[in-house]
Structure formats: structure tokens, C-alpha cells
Outer membrane protein transport protein (OMPP1/FadL/TodX) (Thermophagus xiamenensis), 522 residues
Amino acid sequence: MFNNKILIPVFIFSLSTVVSNGQNEDNALNYSYQRPTGTARSIGLGGAMGALGGDYSAISINPAGIAVYRSSEFSFTPSLIYNNTESDYYGTTSSDDKFSFPINHISYVGTSRLMRETSGLVSTHFGIGYSRTNNYNRKSFIEHDGVKSSLLHMFATNAYGLAPNQLDDFYTGIAYDAYLLDLVPGSSVNEYMHAYEFVNDEGFLELGPVDGINQKKMISEKGYSGLFDLSFGANFGNKFYTGASLGIATIHNKKESQHYEKAGSEVYDDYIAYRQNNGMEILDDFYFDEYEKTTGTGVNLKFGVIYKPIHSIRLGASFHTPTYYSMKMEYDTGAKAYFFDADNYEIESDPGEFSFNFRTPIKAVGSVAYVFGTKGLVSFDYEYTDYSNMKYKSKSNDVLEKDFLEQINDVISNTFRATHNFRVGAEYMVTPMFALRGGYAYFQNQNPYKSEFLNSDGKHYNITGGMGFRAGNMTIDIAYLYNKETYIHSLYYSNEIQADVQEPADMTSIDHQLAVTLGWRF
């Protein structure tokens, strides 16, 4: 049965339905984003592998790349990622960092050669492997003293018009039970005021702390998305290559956040007098905690071709269907409120759970590469993804649940747009056994908000480099990736207060990744 009191606040806050003034990143983007790193050769070439093939990461871009293999291969890629995330909130800069040690990929490719070597069906290929498609490990810290608004403004706005027993069980209801919200005395429309507010002589709500509120927020994210895939391909005349893959996608994302506020050192006497006269307590500081874990399994298909009109030119094209996920979200919230010369309150919600289906966008990739004989190559990929096609779908037949998720889908289609992403890479063979590589990838707003949204200014790019060694049937590739993303994080939003007193934080996240691929061909 659809529980309107539970599900709506969870989607509004946890899924962060986006408004034109800016909100937190929508979880739909996290489910749909792919930040694949893969093999060290692919990293070194900036991920521009769609027309090259012969590498397992190339198969994830264009499955026809499996048909370029001339032998069988086993390979795997361990890596080290160091993330540093910096925030700028009202001019106060803070940062935090995190290490992780993912396995980028592990794979086996089998090649079956026929008798003919130059015409007709030359070879067939089969591959099985796992690739990490996204890394969620990140810690962020945001702070500033003297902010002229509060998270509680948002709670009070969302509670307007509701009786206390109608408040939701995870946000406004938790705040009310912790005495962070109160009904305005004498209000006939269930208007709420928060614990840092009072009613001034003109009858308007006013912030009690004269010098504002000191705010801090810690966000800790961990988890990954990955893809187990089965790939098949065929080589026709060493000129035309085809391939297809069936992918089983997995996602495991956990996010914990703690928002902290403390009254500034000076408060209005009128604030203290008003609250004491109306039997309200004087708030010193409070914490509001959120926990969310999302897990899911999905399926997708990829199709691709590579064509060599002449030996030095490679042309590639591929199509990726959406990934159709079955997902489950678990969540809870809690508040701790500390008052001067009064009781303190610690309130925790009951655990919540919601299951749903989710569809990621389709993707199309076009690729071209030029090979300079045995001395090197240059490769270019263009990728098109339309994020406005992301979609939630109910697992039940409940009409209210279905209607609510359709409202979320309307927000998605009106908020997001298509992205045009570019990758370029180059490889130079210093000797037949040693290669140097470099690459660059620019993702036109991997936070693909339309122009009227704050996150439309977000940037995302990679700079990469690497080297490769071959000794007999063994290959060793080493690569470094510098990944930079800028985005907006809004701590809260209320349409009842001015934008300049609820500014979002400007975030910059940088990954430094070192990867090593060991491969054996036979």
C-alpha cells in the first residue's frame, strides 16, 4: 500500500527533486552516471577506444571491439583512487578526502579462428568479465558562520497547513517531535515557526540570532556500480567487425549526512522574551542526520560495428539500450536538539524501505581512429546521452504510488537535457615493446541540467596518461587519471526566504587514480 506520508518526503529530500533555484544532485543521475575507468590502456587513451577494440574496456564502449582480438586473453586491473572534495560556502573553503582500492575490471576473452584468414568469416569471439562503471567513494565537508537562514526554514515551509499528526515521519515530524518546530501562537492555518525564530512587533517571523547561524555539514558516500557482461563478436575479412553484449548491472550506494547548526554568540532579547512568554525553549544547537542505502540489479544490451575502409582508418558506432533496474532504498533520519536551561531531545525515525524500478537513458557512440602504421594512433569518441529520458516506475498497482512517480518523471523530463561528451587519445610506440599514451575527456555537463538550473554550469573532464610494456605473451599497462568535477550542493531550499540567504555550496571534486593492468594472451 502506498504511504503518502512516508514516500513523498523521502523522494523530496533523499531523491532531491530539483527546483529552479537549485537542490542537491538528483539520485537519478547517480543511478545513470557512468564514470568507467577500466583497463590502464583505456585510461591512458582517455577512454577513446570505440573504434580500436582489442581491449576489454573498448568492448564496454563498442562491443564490436571484441572481434578485433587476434588471440585469447585474460586480464585484470587493480587501482588506487584518492578523492579530495572541496566546498566553497559563502566564501568559507573546506575540504575532505578519501582513499579507495577498487578492482577496475577482470575479464577473459576467447578467440576462435577459422581456416580462412583474409575473407569471409575470419574469427569468432566470446568474452566474459566485470567492469566498475562508477565509484561513489567521497567525503565532503561544508561550513560557514553567520548564515542568515536555517535548514529549519525548509521544514517549517513544508509543514505549513498540516496538523502535527499529519507531518511526515522522517523530516517535518522528526523536527516537530524534537521541538525544532512549533505552531505559531494564534495561527488559524497551522503555520509553523522554527526554534531560531520569533514573531516581531510587526507580526512577522524573524531570526533570533543577531549574527546568524553557524552551519556545518558532513557528507560521506561509499559504494559502486558495476557491470558483469557476456560479449560476442565476429570478424569478417579483417575489415568489418560486429559485436553484441548482454550486461548485468549492479549498484550499491550508501550515503550518510549530518547537518549541524548553532546559534551565533548574540541573540535578540526580543527573541528570548517572546519564546519564554509563549512557553517555548531557547535553542542552542541541533543535529539532523540522514542515512540512505540504495541497492539494485539491472540488465542492458549493447550493439556495435567497426569498419576499416583502409588499413589506417577505423570507424566505429555503437548503441546502448537503457539499463532496466530493480531497486530498493532503505533510509532513516534523526534529530538531536540541545536547548539552554531546558530538556534536550534525541528523536530517530523508524527504518523505512521502498522498492521501485528505474530506467537509465539510452546512449549512442560514434568513433574514429587513425593508425600510423606501427608507430602509433589517434582516436576520438563522441557520446550522446539524453538524461531527460530517465524514468521511475512503480512495482505495485497502487494508483497513488504510480501517480506520484509520474510526477517525479515529469520533473526529470523538465529538468534534464541531452549531453554531448568527447574523448580523445593518442598512443606512440617508442619501441615495438614500449608505448606512451595520453588522453583527454570532456563531459558536457555530466550534471546535465537545463540552462535555468544552477547545476547547468557544472564541469567535468579527465586528463590521462600512461605507458604499456609487452614481454612475450604478457602485457603490463600503467595509467594515471586526473578527474575533475564541479557542481552545486544546496543544503536546503525554501521559497519563503530570499535566495541570497540560502545560497548553495560550490563543490569541486578531484580524483587521482593509478591503475595497473596485467594481461596474458594465448
Summary: The helical segments are 4-14, 27-32, 40-44, 56-61, 151-159, 172-177, 269-277, 399-415. Confidence is low (pLDDT under 50) at residues 14-25. The CA atoms of residues 244 and 303 lie 4 Å apart.
